[in-house]
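Support case: zinc ion complex. Customer-provided input:
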Amino acid sequence: MTPADPALLSLNTATVKSQWTLAQAIEGCARHGLRGIAPWRDKLAELGLKKAVSLIRSHDLSVTGLCRGGFFTAKDWLEDNRRAIEEAHALEADCLVLVVGGLPEGSKDLLRARERVQECISKILPEARAAGVPLAIEPLHPMQAADRACVNTLEQALDLCDALGEDGRSARCALGVAVDVYHVWWDPKLEQQIKRAGKRVLAYHICDWLAPTRDLAYDRGMMGDGIIELAKIRNWVEGAGYAGFHEVEIFSERDWWQRDPDEVLRICRERHLLT
Ligand code: ZN
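Agent response - structure generated as follows:
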């Protein structure tokens, strides 16, 4: 296995969400020699899109993804996703990450919720394509099927891509997947589905799964502190043709969000080399 290329480390701003504004995160990346950043839209709104674009450009950072679009259960989903596409376009983001939403309030109809995801993506896909913004469906761990995303495996996400006409053979993929190790590491079909994804892998998110884990959303581990075979998964992803960034995304209320963010970035750099 080849080691991870340190030039491919990107910071998902969720990792330092409680400590830094987006401006501070951009400057932090530059200071620590990271070449990629993936902002969340709440932080982007705080800073303002224009300022963010100019600050990111002045530090010559790549935007490895914008988090997030989707949430098709929300009442204003269409307008919100249109805004997200515009923002991703302005940032020249590699993709807009879609967290598709779970069950609508009061509903137990999971199959219908999944059909609806396909309908909603089919509605925004032409607009995203016209804006040159690839959409990346991020399957979430099944524990979050009800409240955050009813797309829970890579296979399901790729079935959606197939159904919406994106087979990964076109030169520029308009609809693909975000592979987040935290959500998919357990999947017995992971290797097979990464292979199937091929060029449709649009983003690769890393962290670690702590055992035991104390919170299903906000207790992610630093690479190397948990049980995910990170080097193996990265090799599968790269073997499928993905040559993009490795975006570190750690939600960690009790640990990493409590630390000095410069220390967090320093450790991210060290640990990335082991993934
Ligand atoms: Zn992710």
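The domain at 6-272 is CATH 3.20.20.150 (TIM Barrel).

Case will auto-close in a few days if no follow-up is received.
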